Amino acid sequence: MLFFLVAVSAFFATVIAVGVVVFAVKYRRRSPTEVGARITGSLPLELLWSIIPLLITLVMFFWGATIYYHMRRPPTESIEIYATGKRWMWKFQHLNGVREINTVHVPLGQPVKFTMTSEDVIHSLYFPSMRTKMDVIPGRYTTEWFTPTKAGEYHIFCAEYCGTRHSGMIGTVYVMEPRDFQAWLASGGTGATSEGPLHVRGEKLFSDLACNTCHVPDGQGRGPSLVGVFGSPQTLADGRRVTADPGYIRESILIPQAKVVAGYGPLMPTFQGLVSEEQIVALVEYIKTLRPAAQAATRAGDSANTGIAAAAAPSK
Question: pTM of the full predicted structure?
Fold first, then answer.
């Protein structure tokens, strides 16, 4: 698309420049008394120079929109990592519970999706070698992804001025061979910390905060059942419909009165200031695991089949 835009721009720039020179020479004033001919206009000509640019710009628009759509949607097989910006550091959490500060390890050749938020001000998580950057905003989740193509160590920067030590908010992304990455992850991450898988920590927190007293699986509690809620459309008390994505769950934890589910009253207390961003992430991951019995059985079967296939596969 870049070459197409350059070619179109170069073509019309050349046509206009040549036309200016040719018309300036051909229609120049040859005597002081010469009077220019009256121009009445041409409808076919005006339609031509309106329709042709319109068609070209429509091609640019749909081509660009298609690229943007695919660029902003991470592949389904992406590895998920949570990132939190805080003055002045980057905190990363892998789904198995491994946590890193100002460093993040990723596998070579596999898409990696970052779900990001900020604890204070606007930051911007910038991986210059991966050609990707996205603002990290307090109060909401943003995402970015890339596929590493070469093993090594690469820079991480904050690309949004966030205070006096903004220039020191840097880090390193380590791109590892897939086998080395899996070994690193399974060992708990050399130089990292781990408190167990995120969904397990989220389940314990769900119980510690007494969330399970209202959000019971059969839906007979004071709050709606959370079984199968993640990723599904929810009807609100005011008639709106929203998707239960990580942002919706986060908002429901911190500002529960913002979007009340239809059929329930605004009874849930706020947990603003009581849970950290890392704990919210754990709760989100736990809610993801709450599936209806049929889905849970299917997922368990898929996991078992994957494990059997992996065990049967020859080692290299």
Answer: 0.76
